[in-house]
Design goal:
Layout: E1 2-6, H1 11-18, E2 25-30, E3 38-39, H2 47-56, E4 61-64, H3 71-76, H4 79-98, E5 102-107, E6 117-118, H5 129-142, E7 147-152, E8 155-156, H6 165-176, E9 178-182, E10 186-187, E11 190-191, H7 192-201, E12 208-211, E13 218-219, H8 220-230, E14 237-241, E15 257-258, H9 263-266
Parallel strand pairs: 1-2, 1-4, 2-3, 4-5, 5-7, 6-15, 7-12, 8-11, 9-14
Antiparallel strand pairs: 10-13
Amino acid sequence: MRILVTGAAGFIGSYVMKCCPDPYYPIPLSRAQKGKGINADLLSLRDKDLLELFEKQQIDGIIHLAAEGNISVCERSTETYRLNVGVTKRVVSAAKRRNLPIIFSSTDQVFSGEEGSLYESTKPSPCHQYGQQKLEAEHIVLGYGKGLVLRLPLVLGLHRKGKGSLEAMLNQGRQHGLLNMFIDEFRRPIHAIDVATAIWGALDWKPGIYHISGPKLMSRMEMAKEITCALKEHTIQLIPTSQIEQSFGYKRPSRLDLVSSKSEVRDLKVPSVIQNIHKIA
């Protein structure tokens, strides 16, 4: 099966490409795509262009990862709505006309963090533009009979080109010798390899919403301690800090306890981030 992967040159996209199993064959699409694959800006593609692309490439399914995931950028720029919502609408419309299944990567940020444990049945309540845009895109995907939404937590992993948040954290710590980490912000981190495994596996799942997350709810400080220890980054001093001490210009959820009630997710037996922390995409 030939699967179109949008955002293939991004952080998660690069792991999805690397971890593709048989019998799938990934067709990467990205603005930064080089060599084999499709170099294209989804913002400029019309419905007709997408349909022609699907036909020419003989696409059998879609993994839609292309998005602007920087929360601060989404607060400042109206352009992010065009990518996070507008592009998703066009991709789903084209998929529907070709009767293609589509997997959409969403986020735990569709919740405010005040709901307790977050199951697939928990009502979303985004508290910033990024969460609102991803929730609107979810509705578009779920309105199609072959649409599937995977909500993801904080995704970590090393990347040769430094595309992940982990590299930014480590580089800052190496440069200054210390790193401020929240003790009052909690997520269920997952390694990008395990996200990629779940995404490919989801091609066999029924349409609907699935929560894919790591096995342990951790503070940012706890994550940093485990990761720096595993990577032997002993020169970085971790400084405890609080959300209250920071000014973001938008509300930031403090506790996103993303869990699943789906047997498909439980069967994945997602391990700790540390298990794959030395593997690099």
